[in-house]
Design goal:
- By secondary structure, the protein is of the alpha+beta class.
- Among the domains are: 151 residues, Beta Polymerase, domain 2 (2-Layer Sandwich); 138 residues, Hypothetical protein af1432, CATH 1.10.3210; 52 residues.
- Helices cover 47% and strands 12% of the residues.
- The chain is built from 23 helices and 16 strands.
- The strands form 5 sheets. The protein has an 8-stranded mixed sheet with strand order 1-10-9-2-3-6-5-4. A two-stranded antiparallel ribbon has the order 7-8. It has a two-stranded parallel ribbon with strand order 11-12.
- Strand 5 and strand 6 form a beta hairpin.
- Helix 10 runs antiparallel to helix 13.
- The protein starts with 15 loop residues before the first strand and ends in a 6-residue tail after the last helix.
- 39% of the residues are buried.
């Protein structure tokens, strides 16, 4: 990180744009936070709310948390002031001058002002100078974007805005505080995607240029940091906008290369008029209308990434197909793109350090997104039996997928089928129709008590009974199931 010219062409003098009545902001009225503020002020500190808290307050969005900056107190004095309270104090970021104070289930981050000073040419070559004598303006000077480089002075409710961030919020513009902002910390590139997607900020040409110029530096960033920002992107109002921006700036190649490989790929199929990358983004956009679940949204983005590696060309029509085909001469063409995509998704998600549960969920949604449509309660029961907890998620994915196929001739019919599938799933659940072995009227202990020997045979019997009940729920009675078990297997000794 560099201590360099940070000119943005804006007025960098101290600007107090307005007063904000922080009493109207719920977060800042939390007792844990007010206690911490009072303790720091009583010790002689000047306390400011900074960063996203100020941005969201000015936008009119209730902040989810608050970060505090305190000047005029050294680290020992801050720690001493906080320890007089009843909460827990952690000096977790000593090299960055960052404290965390926890009490009553609330945590607040408290930082001392700091500067980053370049020690070399790499974005990782820097030293951090923590200095309580620095001013709030000095600290804001090192931040990423103008909309985040503001502070509220707690005791006066005045906004300190040295880079005209309030004006940029009003005009919905996203620009860097300095020309070196993105080279100092490449993760800020991903934050630009998030802010663009969350608030609809227009990214300036200059900032776009620097996003592209510094994108390659993301290769050496910790995958956990990338995952964190991707999650915020997927939770934003319009994640598709962030993915488009990532593609346009070349950033996508360094965070989701599997998706980048789909951009510009001609599907060469009359049922898929959009090139593959646009299709993925369209599906993500549509799915985001139905759910804000980041895992379902990520699955929507990844659902067809297996197509380029699974494609084969029909010699009769010249069209591409994306499923495995066995020829009469024994050769195999292509592969099922959902299976290929499933394996690719697992590799991608593990690379980004997603939890095992999230890897399983997202990749399985990719794996099952080509499920066979069902038109009866029996079909709904078998569908739930196959995909379990993912049933409703898959309907959302399918809804986005069909709607993202442009003028696909049968799209309207398929959308009607989806409505019918949703109705059937609800009917099965409302009527408590059995869908898996756990809902059988008997269990393994019942079979053992009936005389069947312990061992793998018990599981085989239960699975067979489950298949029977999926076809005919009326069979799900203890006596009937025991009779079926005896008919299908050797009757137990009596």
């Amino acid at each position: 990180m560099k201590e360099t010219n940070r000119s943005t062409g804006l007025n960098q003098k101290f600007v107090q744009i307005k007063s904000i009545d922080t009493r109207k902001v719920k977060m800042l009225q939390d007792r844990t936070i007010t206690d911490a503020i009072s303790a720091l002020q009583n010790a002689g500190g000047n306390v400011y709310a900074v960063g996203g808290y100020v941005r969201d307050t000015l936008i009119g969005v209730e902040p989810k948390d608050v970060d505090l900056l305190v000047t005029n107190l050294g680290a020992d004095e801050v720690e001493s002031a906080l320890e007089k309270l009843h909460g827990r104090v952690d000096y977790t970021g000593k090299s960055f001058g960052v404290f965390r104070y926890r009490n009553r289930g609330v945590e607040v981050e408290i930082a001392l002002p700091r500067q980053e000073i370049s020690t070399g040419t790499s974005h990782t070559d820097f030293n951090v100078r923590v200095d309580h004598t620095l001013s709030v303006e000095d600290d804001l000077y090192r931040r990423d974007f103008t909309v985040n480089a503001m502070a509220i002075q707690i005791d006066t409710n005045k906004v300190i805005d040295p880079f005209c961030g309030e004006s940029d919020i009003h005009n919905k513009i996203l620009r860097c505080v300095s020309l070196d902002s993105l080279s100092e910390d490449p993760i800020r590139i991903l934050r630009a995607l998030v802010l663009h997607s969350r608030y609809g900020f227009t990214v300036t040409d200059e900032t776009r240029f620097h996003m592209t110029a510094n994108a390659k530096n993301l290769e050496v960033e910790a995958p956990e940091r990338i995952q964190y920002e991707l999650d915020k992107l997927m939770e934003s109002k319009n994640p598709a906008a962030g993915i488009r921006l990532a593609h346009e700036t070349g950033v996508l190649r360094y965070i989701l290369p599997e998706v980048a490989d789909c951009m510009g790929y001609d599907q060469n199929n009359p049922h898929h008029e959009q090139e593959l990358g646009n299709h993925l983004i369209s599906v993500l956009e549509r799915v985001s209308e139905k759910t804000n679940d980041p895992d379902i949204r990520m699955a929507a983005l990844l659902h067809d990434i297996g197509k380029p590696k699974s494609a084969w060309v029909d010699p009769e029509t010249g069209s591409n197909h994306f499923y495995e085909k066995h020829m009469d001469d024994g050769t195999i063409l292509g592969a099922d793109h959902e299976t290929v995509g499933w394996m690719m998704s697992i590799e991608l998600l593990r690379r980004l350090k997603y939890s095992n549960d999230r890897v399983r969920r997202i990749s399985d949604l990719v794996k099952f997104h080509m499920y066979a449509p069902f038109t009866s309660p029996k079909g709904a029961r078998k569908f739930i039996n196959r995909v379990g907890e993912y049933a409703d998620d898959l309907l959302i994915i399918r809804w986005g997928d069909q709607g993202g196929k442009s003028s696909y001739p049968t799209r309207d019919d398929e959308m009607f089928n989806l409505e019918n599938e949703a109705f059937l799933l609800e009917k099965v659940r409302d009527e408590s129709q059995p869908t898996d072995v756990s809902q059988l009227a008997i269990n393994g202990n019942d079979l053992i008590q009936a005389g069947y020997p312990q061992g793998p045979g018990i599981g085989k019997i239960l699975n067979a009974l489950t298949l029977a009940v999926l076809d005919r729920p009326i069979l799900n009675e203890p006596e009937t199931l025991l009779e079926l078990a005896a008919e299908a297997h050797d009757a137990p000794p009596r």
